[in-house]
Every structure is written in C-alpha cells, then in structure tokens.
Amino acid sequence: MDYKDLANLIFPDVNEISYYEEKYPRRNLSDGAIVTRFAPSPTGFVHIGGLYQGLIARKLANQTGGVFFLRVEDTDQKREVEDGIIGIVNSLRDFGFEPDEGMVSEIEGKGNYGPYKQSQRKEIYQAYAKFLIEQGKAYPCFCSTEDVEEIRTKQENAKIRPGYYGVWAKCRNVTVEEAYQRIQNGEKYIIRFKSPGREDRKIKHHDVIKGNVDFPENDQDIVIIKADGLPTYHFAHAVDDHLMGTTHVIRGDEWLSSVPLHLQLFNELGFKAPKYAHIAPIMKNDNGNKRKLSKRKDPEAAVSYYAEEGIPSDAVKEYLLNIANSTFENWRRANPDKSMNDFELQLNKMSVSGALFDMVKLLDVSKIVISKMTAEEVYENSLEWAKKYDKELEELLQDKEYALKVFGIERGNKKPRKDISKWSDVKENISYMYDEEFEKDEAEYIYQVINDKESIEKILKLYIEKYYDENDDKQAWFDKIKELAGEMGYAKEVKEFKANPDMYKAHVGDVSTVLRIALTKRTNTPDMYEIMQVLGKGRIAKRFENAIR
Ligand code: GLU
Predict the structure, then answer these.
(1) DSSP character at residue 213
(2) Which atom, in ligand 1's list, is nearest to the CA of 251?
(3) What's the pLDDT tens digit per position in 183-209?
(4) How far is the CA of 252 from the centre of ligand 1 (A)?
(5) CB–CB of 34/248 below 8 Å?
C-alpha cells in the first residue's frame, strides 16, 4: 500500500492535474503584460481599501496590456452573505473598472479561466490536493478541534511557538496503512500540507512594494482542504493564481507574513510563483492616532458611502490615485485636462506604510472633477442622485431646460465654478435660483458696508428702473453698476476708493454686494451677471421689491 492508494481512497473521482493544466493553457501575452486580480470575499461589505486594491490592479493591467479578473473567494462559507457578489460586481462597474474576466453575477462568470468563484472549483482543488498526497506532500489529519486546542494549550503553557508543525504535527507520522484503515472506519479528517520547511532557516524575498524582506521558512502543516471539502485561502490562492496565470498578486499587506508559506506551496506543487505586491492599508487620523479605516467605526470605509453622499466615482478614483502615488499630484497639476487613465501608476512608488485618508482633500479633488463637467453632466448626475436620496431636489430639477441654465452659470469657461463637491451639496447651492425655495428661505438679508434702509432702497430702485438692461453684455452691465455707484456718491472704482478713503462712504463693490444680497441673500455666489441673465428682469424686480419690503 502506498501514497497513491491513500490518495485514491480520499479522492476517487477527481481528474488528473494534467487535465487542468491543459484546460487552462498559459496565457499568450506580450512580455511585461501584468495579469492580476481582485479577490474579495463576498461578505456583503465592500471596503474602500478593497476598491483601492482593485483600482491599482485594474490600472496595472491596463498599462501593460495585461488582464484584470475578479475572483470571488467564498470558501469561508460562514462569512458569506446572500447577494454579496452582486455588490462587488456593481461597485466595480459604478467605479468604471470592470474586470476583463471573472464573476458578473452571483453565479455567472466570463472568461476562459473560470469558474471564478472558489466554491465552484471544489474538484479542481481536490485534484491538486490528491496530487500532493500521491507524493507524500500532504496527508489526512484526524485531529479534532479539541485535539488541536489541546496542542495549543500545551504550547502556550510551555511558552513555545504555537501551531501544527514538527513534533506537534501528530498526524504527519501516521502510516499510510493506518490512515487508510481509519478512513475506511469512517473517522473524520481534513487534509494538511506536509511542510518541508525549517523555522531556523531564512528565506529572502523581494516584494514589489515592500522591497526586500527576510522571513523564517514556513514549517506549519497548514490545512489545505477543510472538513467541508473546500480549500483554505492559502491553498486556493496557489492553485487559482497558478491556473489563472496571475503574474502579480496585488493584495493587502495583512498577507505579507504568509509569503513563506505561499512560496512553499507554489514550489511543492511545481508551480512558478507570481510576483507579490503588498499594499498598505488606508489609514485614518483619529485624534492624532493613526489607525486603519475601520468598517465598524468609519462610515467612509464603505464604498456605498460615496454613492450615498453623492461623491462622484471619478473623484474617489482620482483621490485614490493620489494616495497610491504621491507623484500623481504633480502630474495632475502639469496635466489638468488629461484623463486620469493617462497617469502611469508605479507599484514601486507606493507607500510602504499606510497612507492617510483625508476627506477634506477628497472633497477638494471632487470639486475640481465636478467643475470640469458640462452643465448637462452635472444635471444628469444630480438628478440620478436625487432620485435615490432627495425627493425635493428631484422635484426642483424637473424643469431640465431651466436647470441647465442654472448649472451653466460659470461653467465651461476657463475658471469654472468650484462650489459643488458632492451631489448632496447641489440643493443648497442652487435653491436661491428657484423662486419658491427662495421665498421659503427664512434667512435674513444681511447687508454689509451699505446697510441703511434708505440707501439700499435707492440702489435697488435706481438699478432696476434706470440701469438694468437684459441686453447688456457683461462689460456694459458692470459699467452701469459703476454709474449707479457714481450717481449715489460712491467711488466708481475700488482703486479710487482706496486712494481717498475719506472722500467716499463706499465703492462700486459695495453696491454690487447690495444687489447680490437682495437677489440671493448670500454674499458669495457665482457670477452675478450670469445669475441675472438666468433670472430675467421681471424676477429681479420682484426680488428687489421683496427685499425692500
Ligand atoms: N480573499 C482575500 C481577501 O479578501 C484575498 C487576498 C488576495 O488578494 O489574495 O483578503
């Protein structure tokens, strides 16, 4: 009786691995092409850090003419939730980095290297586990959870490194005959890897992001196939990334310490190991303490948060590129009009420790992204957001023609308005352009330098009766405000006022402010000329009357 008999007893019906090696041929790609993946577990929560990793992977595949695929890692069925996959698929779609291959729904995938959901690959893992057993590189382990716990307690008491290894690995020395017998007797078992490693030997490894790292060899006989017949993460990683032709494993750095085990698995399986790039997590400054963005504590850790707030996905992506490579900011400054897809991301320029997530900065990026949109794009995006999250705004936006005029104010020119950083800002930013909203607004008119009732009344009356002409261009319009200032005895030029501050009570700018406040109750608005053009003379007059009252 030999290993082969034991392997046949355990996995009688699986294919030879040659079957899979032929079924999934090496990919025919040009030199330097990066094949990489996003491999989340469908826990129902898409973390912004996962999206960040996915974005980096997607970009590198694009930059090198490679392949980016989505593999769903659902072997831990306790953690899995219903509809977890669709959330991931939709997030990637919403952020515009759909995979070339991989899952497209809960059960379906596209591409020649599937299935792309691990629970659908059970027999593949078993074929490779059988292959290891046949060579004596894996074995059935009959230890119960209690046995393993007992080993652990003994190790803790003796202050010895914990785990199933060396002399502690009870079942690695069970003979083939005994194992065969026990399985036939119906005893329960799992499959463990027989590690050839030694803890007192070091391996040197080069990580694409972290650089050179030294580790002790792995000597743990880790579980590769669990009692439910599914693989553990480690084993599935080796089998899948081999068969799927992954050249670069881009993943969170919580996996860095597993590299010795993973290299060993690749080696024992006879596979060429991929390159590894371990990404540091996104951090948050929590009252001076730097910690990981937490699913539990930080709403912004959830990808869904950005959609709810109405932060455009392009802004989030652009911000994530900022975090990924500090060179991005300079590149953006030098290339304000280029698509972020033109930026060459470099893995070896990623920060080794986690970058800080800064919401203020993200909103700044977002303002610029939105400022570059056309009125039509702003309209469509706001409306789409409003339909889901703000019925009142949806109502306001019903008159598309008018809304386009409002959004068109100071847009499409060299210095476009930058007052919107998220769609949830829109209502506040445009409400005064809607008479009903404006009348509902209970804010006071707070005048500034010119604030006596008489002067204000006179300015508003004179302006609408004598000076305002809808056909004026911007220059003529402004000249009229100067004339009005002159007529009222204020300085027509700010310069003149500054040169002779004692001669005047106020200047043309202060007159403008009176007009602006009477029109909008705000001191800060986009271009007033354009606002007046959109409102038209009748509505301006009415607002002035109300202001006087
Ligand atoms: N399912 C693993 C995780 O979500 C994937 C790690 C990897 O990319 O290999 O952490």
Answers:
(1) E
(2) 8
(3) 999 999 999 999 999 999 999 999 999
(4) 7
(5) yes
